[in-house]
Amino acid sequence: MNRPHFRALGPRSRPRQGTTRAAPRTRLRTRDLLTEAHAGMLQRPGRSALTALGTVLGVGTFVAILGLTATASSQIDSRFNTLVATEVTIEDIGDDSAEQLANSFPDDAPSRMERLHGVQHAGVYWHVSVSGRSTVTAAPVGDGAGGEEAPVVAATPGVLAAAGPTLAQGRLFDAFHHRRAEDVVVIGSGLANRLGITTLETQPAVFVGGTPLTVIGIVDDVDRQEDLLLSVIVPSTTAEKYWGGPSRGERAKMLVSTRLGAATQVAHEAALALDPAHPDRFKSIPPPDPRTLRGNVSGDLNQLLLLLAGICLVIGTVGIANTTLVAVLERTGEIGLRRALGARARHITAQFLTESGALGALGGLVGTSLGTLTVVGVAVARDWTPLIHPATVAAAPVIGLATGLLAGLYPAWRASRIQPVEALRR
Q1: Three-class SS of residue 45?
Q2: What is the CA radius of gyration of the chain?
């Protein structure tokens, strides 16, 4: 046990006869306080390490969660900007009067849109109402048995180009197929597997409402309009040849892909470009504000993950409080000896608070380092750009210190209440 450093203050004059000498006033210098706290922590280094472990985990989780949330939000925002922020949807909202066509888009609507600055691809599409049997089969069975229910989409070639497809096999239909109204079709890989179509070398066909259509392409994935993966996509001219155009209850739409930053302006100009005489027949839907999306995503992630970090900090606080309280009980004799040598209750309180605060601050520093390394490691593994706010790194050790001090309040108060006579008697 280290020798405690307590200094008596005041004159050492003898008390007058018939009077009682007052107890000398003592103080514990800051240097001595730090020395005693350091010695107390090193008496049992294993226990001190385990005590700080709770704060390490709590602060490390806190830093890692905030860092990963910021990094993931940045990646979500980047992906949103490159995909959704370059997509414009135009809806046909023309009325159903007798003189109004079901499809208000002009025949050269895609070329009109592609003449706008910033537009890359554009195409018109609508869902086909197939009369009779609506199931899609891979064989001309009489009752449609063994078929799959799948929506049939009539589309111009620009729709597939704007969707950004990834082909598993074959090719997409183009302007040649569209101009000649060829009996071809493009399907998704999921539907192809359900129909038993595994290769295009045999030129397989599917039957839509009894009409045979040759499968020329199987799409594995798309960047936009994911519902196309579950659909049978035919050239719009082919659909008009067999089933006509959009019905009165089914309106056509246009999908437009733009360069980054041009979507809002394209959406503003689209109606006039399509039909200067009747721009009110079209409704342009620009992409949502990326700042709103990022704020919503970041807010939801922060609320959930900060709750987890808070739980870890609470666990660390309880761990430090429990271990410090056990240390107080184990060091009762030492506390009694210090009190007998002149230590006041506030000195004992300060010593144990210093020990728990030092363990918390040390755990906060180690936890900050581990949390930062976790964020960097995950970002490198996922090929992301790590993002940690400087305020998070600066505040984390302070949080560790505050956690240690909070955890040591009750044990320190408990130690200060120990009476010297009772402590030495044990």
Answers
A1: helix
A2: 38
Say if CB 84 and CB 275 are below 8 A apart. Answer: no
pTM: 0.54
Model pLDDT, residue 12 = 47
**φ/ψ of residue 223, rounded to 5:** -85, -30
Joined tokens for residue 263: 């979507």
What CA–CA distance (Å, rounded) separates 390 from 402?
Answer: 19
Distance of alpha carbon 41 from alpha carbon 349, whole angstroms: 15
Closest CA to 286 of 16, 88, 145, 71: 88
Query: Residue 146 region, left (φ>0) first, then alpha (ψ -120 to 50), else beta?
Result: left
CB distance 408 to 359 below 8 Å:
no
Q: List the end-to-end C-alpha distance of the chain, in Å, as a whole number.
A: 17
Q: Looking at the DSSP assignment, which residues form a beta bridge with residue 123?
A: 255
Amino acid making up residue 146: G
Of residues 302, 351, 307, the one with CA closest to residue 327: 351
CB-neighbour burial class of residue 158 (10 A; exposed 0-12, middle 13-18, buried 19+) = buried
**Single-letter residue type at 12:** R
The per-residue pLDDT for range 175-196, each reduced to its tens digit, is 999 999 999 999 998 888 888 8
Residue 406 to residue 250: CA distance in whole angstroms: 65
